[in-house]
Write a structure and sequence with these properties.
CATH topology of the largest domain: D-Maltodextrin-Binding Protein, domain 2
Largest sheet: 9 strands, mixed
CATH architecture of the largest domain: 3-Layer(aba) Sandwich
Distance between the termini: 60 Å
Order of helices and strands: HHHEEHEHHEHEEEHEHEEEH
Structural class: alpha/beta
CATH superfamily of the largest domain: Periplasmic binding protein-like II
Number of helices: 10
Length: about 300
């Protein structure tokens, strides 16, 4: 039994005529009659009463018609959903992110994506940058909004830089640099610094060391933390001051002030994904992210 058998039978049952069904389906009357006879033979009962001028359904034909309709409707739904999936209109997408690094543009993109693709089920998972990479490797998320990839991960995953987040200096309000409009690199020469661990923020950590070295000194790193909230807590505790990406200000730690850092130091934010798991929903999300990035580059919009 094939779907065409059901379509032929449904047409004859609804129109009450093999001739009318043949016209609707653009197929010969003999072909329809032959297929319905094959169907009746397979079922072991007659579905149509052909004794009158108009074809009538038997009792078994009535039962079969209802089930045939359900089957054909389900098959059409499967076709429609699959085609929509190909177009990136249905499916699921799991996104890993960290709030302080994406706060400026992430909510806008998610709102726009939900509006343009209501059939895609979104899962938004807040997690540390290192955990995002682990989740990508395990297939638990489809895309990570995280730090730019470092070797050898850049050979495994694909990534695109979305923005550069400029560095700021976090310090207590009574610190000697708190009233400066900006903090220069040489101002840090005698300061105790609290930094995020290198293994979780390799590029940012190394660039801090590099800008200090360019000014002729090594930074006095007195403590590190695995998280930016931990870094700010150590600053609040009087351990030192910290260089952090400006997005960290969204953590809203009390008792701290943030001043611009007079250097090109910044932390990158990238979209990272596994090329082996590229699907329509992911590609549509990346298209939207690129569109927002390009608007920002042209000055028409901002990620901040």
């Amino acid at each position: 039994m094939e779907l065409r058998h059901l379509r032929y039978f449904q047409a004859v049952a609804e129109l009450g005529s093999v001739t009318a069904a043949a016209r609707r389906l653009y197929i010969s009357q003999s072909a329809i009659s032959e297929q319905i006879k094959d169907l009746e033979q397979e079922l072991g009962c007659e579905l149509l009463d052909r004794s009158g001028r108009k074809v009538q359904l038997t009792a078994q034909g009535q039962v079969f018609l209802e089930e045939a309709r359900r089957t054909l409707e389900a098959a059409q739904r499967a076709i429609d959903v699959t085609r929509r999936s190909v177009r990136g209109e249905v499916g699921s997408l799991a996104i890993g992110y960290f709030v302080w690094g994406t706060a400026g543009f992430f909510p806008r993109i998610i709102r726009e994506f939900r509006k343009s693709r209501p059939g895609i089920r979104l899962s938004l998972v807040e997690m540390h940058a290192m955990r995002q990479i682990e989740a990508l490797e395990a297939g638990n998320i489809d895309v990570a909004l995280t730090r730019p990839l470092q070797p050898p991960l850049d050979k495994i995953f694909r990534s695109e830089l979305l923005l550069r987040d400029p560095a700021v200096v976090a310090m207590p309000p009574d610190h000697r640099l708190a009233h400066n409009k900006e903090v220069k690199t040489r101002d840090l020469a005698e300061e105790r610094l609290v930094l995020a661990e290198r293994r979780s923020n390799t590029e940012f950590f190394d660039n801090i060391v590099a800008v200090c070295a360019a000014e002729g000194f090594s930074p006095q790193i007195v403590n590190t933390s695995a998280t930016w909230s931990g870094v700010l807590t150590l600053v609040e505790a009087g351990e030192g001051i910290a260089l952090v990406p400006s997005g960290v200000k969204t953590l809203r730690m009390r008792g701290l002030v943030f001043r611009p850092f007079a250097s090109a130091l910044s932390a990158g934010l990238a979209a990272v994904w596994d090329p082996r798991r590229e699907g329509p929903a992911l590609m549509e999300f990346l298209r939207l992210v690129r569109e927002h990035r390009d608007r920002s580059d042209r000055g028409a919009a901002s990620f901040d």
